[in-house]
Amino acid sequence: MEEDRSAKFSPSKLDVYKKCPRRYQYRYVDGIARRRKTPETTLGAAVHSAFEELYALVSGGKTPSLAEVTGHFDQAFDEGWDDAVHVKDNRFTKDDWRAVGRDCVERYYCVHAPFTEDRTVAVEKRVGFPLQVEDHEYRIEGFIDRLSLARDGGFEIHDYKTSKSLPSQEDVDADWQLALYELAVRREWPDAAEVRLKWHYVRHGKTLTSVRGAAAREKLRADAAALVARIKRDHAFEPKQGPLCDWCEYKDLCPLFAHPEKIAALAPAERRKDEGVRLVDALTEIEDKRRRVKDELKALDCEKDGLDERIAAWAQAAGVSVVAGVSAQASVNVKEDVHLPTKTQEPEKHAALEADARKSALWGEIARLDAHALTEGVRSRRWSGELLSAAEVLLERYGRRVTARTVRLRRRRGAEEE
Questions:
Q1: CA dist., res. 87 & res. 52, Å (int)
Q2: Starting from the edge strand earliest in sequence, which strands make up the sheet with 400-411, in order?
Q3: Of 109, 214, 270, 323, which residue is least crowded by CB atoms under 10 Å?
Q4: Is 295 part of a structural domain of the chain?
Q5: Cα–Cα distance between 116 and 378 in angstroms, integer?
Q6: Phi and psi for 152 in degrees, rounded to 5?
Q7: Cα angle: 16, vertex 21, 24; to 5 degrees
Q8: Spatial CB neighbours of 364, under 8 Å, sequence gap ≥ 6
Q9: Same domain as 185, residue 79
Q10: Which pTM value belongs to this model?
Q11: Total number of domains constituting the chain
Q12: By residue range, what is the domain housing residue 369?
């Protein structure tokens, strides 16, 4: 398998690898250019286009009306929505998605108009910085949706999100993609006092902000270098199954989905002709038989346990240890034992037992609570004096005496089964 020869990495490119190395391979190593258009991606692109036009006009000294901005959204949305859009949920039409997008634009416009809270430095600005990875230098590059200067002189990196989900503050504080752009901004403007990362979740009319300290930025740089090194060493690019697989444009190539995708497209009669289908169906039949046999064995084991108890009780009442049948005989072995509380079945009693054992002179001998070692130690008189007394106290306090009767069946020589 080929290796990655990239010299440049964008945050989104790195994110593809983190989520699925095989998708990274198809797109960036094998160069298989595919982009699955969905209502979500079409909506996002149109909203971004509307905001790009909005701030381009504001930077030129003109404040567009809401109607102008939503009109630009409509135009971009119509241009982006074509037959290539893959609609997964047919309950929602193109007009439904348009309404969602218009609502996003209107919410943002009403919150931020007249757009004088900051000064736009650039929209869709390409930024980057060099990254030393072992003996090689690579470059991290990408596009910032909007870069602005706040009134206090701090830089602000803006990212517009049209997703339905709204992350927590903890989530955005851990986000690394936008933070990589901060490293690029600080390299371009070394005197920047503060750089704020701002995510605008426009479906919700909510803006989340995060500020990273110097230590966090250095860790981010080191983490990015480690990730690039991992990509460069990777020759397998193993697929990673996750919730985004349903939207992947390479499902027909992926070893996790290629055969299921192929079979799903066939008519039922054609599916049964496929060798893989026949093999898996045969395995399914065998597994079903195994499960039925296991269930039968389980039922037989329960029946045997009941017979063992009845034979042991009959032998005790008769005063014998061997019970004869026509073709076999059953020997009954009786063993007296002491059961101590276990961590799983009686956790509170087990904890109390261990606490008392730790306090006793015995603890140095058993090192940890071993119920078998404790009972066997008393039975075999492994200890003497104070140690034996301590062990006997623990058994007396926590032990539960039980009688185990084991029944073993032995067929008579030459006897026939009836």
A1: 26
A2: 322-324, 328-339, 400-411
A3: 214
A4: no
A5: 84
A6: -85, 5
A7: 55
A8: none
A9: yes
A10: 0.71
A11: 2
A12: 303-411
